[in-house]
Amino acid sequence: MASYARRTNLIEGVGNEVLLGLSAFTGALIAALYFVNSRGQQTGTIHPDSEGNVATTRERLQNEAEHVGDVSLGGARPSRRTHHRNDGQLSCPICLGSAVLAVETNCGHVFCGHCMVTYWQHQTWLGAIRCPSCRTQVSLLLLNFTAEEHAADSDERREVINKINQYNRRFSGEPRTIQEYLQDLPTLLRHAFHEFFSVGGLMWMFRFRIGILVLAAFLYLISPLDILPEAVFGIIGFLDDIFIILLLAIYISIIYRQVITARAGDG
């Protein structure tokens, strides 16, 4: 009987259930990475319910731009650039120009940092805003600067970072529903993934925690001990593996949200 079991193994010395678990983990990981990256950075239109607030924000931005122009003609140096032309890069649906010092909402939409701050301050300073593009409640704003913008030092950059930190300190810790956690996954996992492999990204303690979580999930998936064994339940037996991967993704997003909140506090 033992010799028959050995003959039926695809790889000598390795159980077929281990290979199935490894294949399931690899397939799920590839699918998750593809889904996360395919979401990308969304630039979209303005939601009909947001058009009034966006129109008011555009008017304020235009007034600021005219004021800066008047000051510049008077010989003083403007401290902030408030009007941006569209040069084919990521566009801001508020000012309709290229996204400058861009920020990304937890729902994955990109705006100019100054446009988003103006939208927040002149709409509802005391509460979290809803995304102008999809009306999802914005609980987190993520910096999406270019390499040049990260390296440059300007009054506008410092002001945007300061206001974004204020926003994240106030609203990133609010209670979340399971649906909201799932909606935020693509954006937060993409940012966490990029920071995990960048030199100045996540702190080593958070990288260690994420590494331990991934390793534990991997060991469970290749283990012959399953809540729903594939040998008994067939394809349904993979449901517990999918559930473990989903829990892992949600917990990583929670850890990353904690990182952003800690940065906001330090800022």
UniProtKB/TrEMBL annotation:
<keyword id="KW-0479">Metal-binding</keyword>
<protein>
    <recommendedName>
        <fullName>E3 ubiquitin-protein ligase RNF170</fullName>
    </recommendedName>
</protein>
<dbReference type="InterPro" id="IPR038896">
    <property type="entry name" value="RNF170"/>
</dbReference>
<keyword id="KW-0472">Membrane</keyword>
<dbReference type="InterPro" id="IPR001841">
    <property type="entry name" value="Znf_RING"/>
</dbReference>
<dbReference type="InterPro" id="IPR017907">
    <property type="entry name" value="Znf_RING_CS"/>
</dbReference>
<feature type="domain" description="RING-type">
    <location>
        <begin position="92"/>
        <end position="135"/>
    </location>
</feature>
<keyword id="KW-1133">Transmembrane helix</keyword>
<keyword id="KW-0863">Zinc-finger</keyword>
<keyword id="KW-0812">Transmembrane</keyword>
<dbReference type="InterPro" id="IPR010652">
    <property type="entry name" value="DUF1232"/>
</dbReference>
<dbReference type="Pfam" id="PF00097">
    <property type="entry name" value="zf-C3HC4"/>
</dbReference>
<dbReference type="Pfam" id="PF06803">
    <property type="entry name" value="DUF1232"/>
</dbReference>
<feature type="transmembrane region" description="Helical">
    <location>
        <begin position="231"/>
        <end position="254"/>
    </location>
</feature>
<feature type="transmembrane region" description="Helical">
    <location>
        <begin position="206"/>
        <end position="225"/>
    </location>
</feature>
<dbReference type="GO" id="GO:0012505">
    <property type="term" value="C:endomembrane system"/>
</dbReference>
<feature type="transmembrane region" description="Helical">
    <location>
        <begin position="18"/>
        <end position="36"/>
    </location>
</feature>
<dbReference type="GO" id="GO:0008270">
    <property type="term" value="F:zinc ion binding"/>
</dbReference>
<dbReference type="InterPro" id="IPR018957">
    <property type="entry name" value="Znf_C3HC4_RING-type"/>
</dbReference>
<keyword id="KW-0862">Zinc</keyword>
<feature type="region of interest" description="Disordered">
    <location>
        <begin position="68"/>
        <end position="87"/>
    </location>
</feature>
<dbReference type="GO" id="GO:0061630">
    <property type="term" value="F:ubiquitin protein ligase activity"/>
</dbReference>
<dbReference type="InterPro" id="IPR013083">
    <property type="entry name" value="Znf_RING/FYVE/PHD"/>
</dbReference>
